[in-house]
Amino acid sequence: MDAAPKKRPYCSACSKPVRVCLCSRFKAPLLDNSIAVTVLQHSLEKNHPLNSIRIASLGLKNLTVVTVSDVNTEAEFHIRLLKSKLSSEEEEKEEPLIAATVSKNGYTCSVLHQTDSLKPDFDQILASQVGQDAISNGFMVKKLQRKLGNKPNKKLDEEFEEQDEEFEIAVPPGTALLFPSKGSIDVAVVNFEVKHLIVLDGTWQKAKRIYYENPWLKLLPHLRLNLGKLSLYGEVRQQPKEGCLSTIESVVFAMKGLGHDQEGLDALLDVFESMVGDQRRFKDENMSRSQPRATRGLRL
Fold it and tell me: Which of 220, 101, 235 has the alpha carbon at shortest distance from 171?
């Protein structure tokens, strides 16, 4: 029996194969970004070889990556104001200010909050005092994902529901979402201070699903980029339409537009460009080796 092929070694820091490790390409220390960034990363994007958030994680000091999965059964969101001085144990017992339930694919969403017996949607809450308090004071949002599983010692077709906490995120005052929704504001003309930026990481379809399955994002002001630039991804990763950028490019250009120091940010794009160059080179090498057979791109 032939021995199993050895797995190629990977860098534990950048998650790339050692031969194309990104770590040594950072020529400056971590950038102490004044605008903190929270990335909601689709669960299928994390291990993609061309995922660009690995560069942001290595280059930005104030960055948090939160893994977000699709709602395949049902999810609950509990929202509490940040100004609460309750202990963690007391918070667990306290009813959330806003509670929302989202079904698969976000097709239905019911919302309950302490001050109203009605079931408004987030657009209505946004215009209410409850929504304004959440925006001005900041809030905590917890996602509870309901999943189907098999009962122990039962037949395989007998299922039960279990509920797991997927994330809990602090959304401080001054937070904005980078997402080109209807009514979003061009980063270049923002007339308020942005202290914290939330960014969605995934393909365009995955990012849209994150947005619609996390309705609490509607509580935030929405920002967009109008740059007319082509992504450095080029031909190595398909883009749905012209003007779509990688997540690291979106973060960099948004922070530049909001007045952040540009020198350190440009260095992040240099590393990203080198990573894209690696993929392009190996793709070309793979094509030349496999001709005249059908070619297939090699992922790093």
Answer: 220
Structural tokens at position 196: 């914290």
What digits encode the pLDDT tens for the residues 9-39?
A: 989 899 899 999 999 999 888 899 999 999 9
Beta-bridge partner residues of 101: 76, 110
Q: Are 31 and 57 in contact (CB under 8 A)?
A: no
Is the separation of the CB atoms in 133 and 81 below 8 Å?
Answer: yes
**Residue 150 dihedral angles phi and psi, to the nearest 5°:** -100, 135
Parallel, antiparallel, or unpaired: how do β-strands 98-103 and 74-81 relate? antiparallel
Question: In sequence order, what DSSP letters do the residues of 34-99 get, joined into one string?
Answer: SSEEEEEEETTTTT-TT-SHHHHHHHBSSEEEEEE---SSEEEEEEEETT----HHHHHHSPPSEE
- In degrees and rounded to multiples of 5, residue 34 shows phi and psi of -75, -25
Q: How many CB atoms lie within 10 A of CB 139?
A: 24
Tokens linked to 74 = 């049902």
Length of the chain: 300
- pLDDT digit string, tens, across residues 181-224: 999 999 999 999 999 999 999 998 999 999 999 999 999 999 99
pTM of the model: 0.83
Report the C-alpha dihedral over residues 25, 31, 36, 41, rounded to 10 degrees: 10
CB contact set of 241 (below 8 Å; sequence gap of 6+): 204
Amino acid at site 105: N
Stated as kind and residue range, the H or E segment containing 269 is helix 263-290
